[in-house]
Amino acid sequence: MATGPGTAGSGADREDPKNEQLEAFRAHPAQDLLTTDQGVRIDDTDNSLRVGERGPTLLEDFQAREKLTHFDHERIPERVVHARGSAAYGYFEAYASLADLTCADFLSEAGLRTPVFVRFSTVQGPRGSADTVRDVRGFATKFYTREGNYDLVGNNMPVFFIQDAIKFPDFVHAVKPEPHNEMPTGGTAHDTFWDFCSLQPESTHMLMWAMSDRAIPRSLRMMQGFGVHTFRFVTADGRGTFVKFHWRPKLGVASQVWDEAQITAGKDPDFHRRDLWEAIEGGDYPEWELGVQLVAEQDETGFDFDILDATKLIPEEEVPVRVIGRMVLDRNPENFFAETEQAAFHTANVVPGIDFSNDPLLQGRNFSYLDTQLIRLGGPNFSQLPVNRPIADVNHNHRDGYGQQVIHSGTSYAPNSLNGDNPHQAGQDRQPGVFQHYQQRVDGDTIRKRSGSFSDHYSQATLFWNSMADWEKQHIVQAFRFELGKVENRAIRKRMVDNLTHVDHGLASAVAAGIGVDVPEQTGTANHGRSSAALSQQNLLPGDPGTRKVALLAADGVDVASAAALQSLLKQHSVTVEVLAAHDGSLHDGNGEGTLPVTRALPTTASVLYDAVVVAGGAESARTLAADPDTRRFVEEAWRHGKPIGALDGGAYVLPPYGPADPAGLSDSSDSRTPTASDLQEGVVVAAPGENGVDDFADAFLAALAAHRFPDRPPVLT
Ligand code: HDD
């Protein structure tokens, strides 16, 4: 087992057939002489071969030519969408046999583990764009099953912008940066995107999701995933059941706020990538449960929407989600290019027991993914790349092509007599482990027309809006105002507002008021008043603060004992406390009783990179912090972003509502200045002086962390 950088700890040690397969392809750092590609040992790679010390370089220098040529060819085209991504390996574990629904082997047995590779992504931005832009997140899972690879290529939102794949190039041309100036990077706040969407009302439901906080996740580990389309489960005897797939994060669904996301994009453009990587390296393996919504074939048309329409979800109140297994990601890739970049997903990579529906978006995707890999990965042999290789045996008559890695012998055609007609075909009779398409009767005229059952573009957008908590509604309005406020063309703004009147008149009016558009008349479509609790993030918080990151602000004179006690108490709940100070190194205790190691110097980090902030105890430390503009900014930013804020004994001076205007006025005795519980605003926790102070503080602070945000707290400090 490799142990170099990027190889996670215990997760790498479990039994894992995919990992064993990858090991054969790993090249560990050589402890030997440098060679050329041909294995010839090299004496010097720093100087090219030249005529005299100051003379021209010789063409004869095969070493320089090889080195430069390889370098010149190191880049491949990035993905046309979802270019920016991060990935990890892990496993899926089935909870029970689903043999009554599907013959898929990986769902056939309780406890059966299947290796997986999951790549998360943003959609709009290029490979080097920031993680925390407002965008849909890709959630693509490759299951290396014993019956071949199954790819579930989903997103963190359950619907999509368009209904028919033939519109995808139009949509992507509109969402990508403007063609003349290649702006903006990573976001949708520009004219072509809103021009397209305002003219394409089928995008309205997805726009509601994209303008909600779902588009600015706190972490890739705290997002739901959805297969989006209706697929089919198929049993061994050919019976079908429609199925929608849901991934549910164990850590709950949590988001940043928009101001925070924008600052994060500058402070740490790799925020999500780093978070995923560090969680896995640290043994906090992210976990999701896989759920399914099942619809019997005969109930296909029993909804007030079409289940083949990818702009619709099936409300969980109508069809509950049945949980069928869990997925754990416990191993980071070792080489970003080889694994994350070369991973090739394809919606048509299905295994026996899983099949398609006639969703026209899915049908088109089934063409596009294979097609795109041919140009991106340079030919038809990309499934031989280590990350893409199935663990199932591969036997076929495909030959040759760029990058062929296999030395095939014997025949490559069927039928043949020279190799006993091998590899032989399984035949049409149903056999275990052999893919057979679901048999459906199809009858109709050749027609280029959308079904009438796809024509209601607003009811579910309204359902989503109605299901939001007040603060979620506010965020949606603010997001529309931000995005449309950046649209130069006023007619586009107006057209979009007009569309929103069909969702909810209050929403349309609130958006209009912010972007200089006249508040529209109430139009024909009245809000139907229905809602679905499952759609609100308010109902999806974990109730467990595990893996959150807390900043403990401190200075010399800190109360080391209470700081260390807090670190250890929160660690028991998998919460990390990092000590931040003006300088790196360590801090001296005010009582001369020891030192507190500093995790990071304040200038190297930022408030937005933490879930919460605590001001350490100790009067001298508090006095220094209260006078420090960087500390005040840190706390104020956390406050503005609705985060839990805490203070250990004495530290409350630093919290702006309680601290003195003139820090010089601080007395050495902190007790008299400690605010009482009734003074405190939501999400503010202050330790009471005394022996149990830190324990009680830790309990209350953990509860505040689990609540994630306090959107009702006044955003501005008074
Ligand atoms: Fe797509 C990549 C998800 C519609 C064509 N798509 C891609 C990825 C994800 C999705 C997660 C990144 C995979 C990876 O990590 O490598 N796409 C979706 C979802 C859709 C969807 C959930 C709607 C339900 N996509 C869609 C349509 C088309 C495509 C309708 C074309 C007809 N998607 C592509 C692509 C990409 C891609 C151009 C770019 C890179 C790649 O495939 O491998 O083929």
How does this structure look, described?
With 718 residues, the protein is α/β, with parallel strands linked by helices. Helix content is 25%, strand content 14%. Strand 11, helix 14 and strand 12 form a beta-alpha-beta unit. Helix 3 runs antiparallel to helix 4. Bound molecules: CIS-heme D hydroxychlorin gamma-spirolactone. The site of CIS-heme D hydroxychlorin gamma-spirolactone has 26 residues, from strand 2, strand 3, strand 4 and helix 9.
Relative helix content:
25-40%
* Distinct ligands: CIS-heme D hydroxychlorin gamma-spirolactone
Number of helix segments? 17
**What gyration radius follows from the Cα positions, in whole Å?**
29 Å
Work out the strand percent: 5-15%
3D shape: globular
List the uncertain runs.
1-9, 660-672
Domain Catalase core: 35-422
Region (Disordered): 1-21, 408-430, 659-679
Enzyme class: oxidoreductase
Family: Belongs to the catalase family. HPII subfamily.
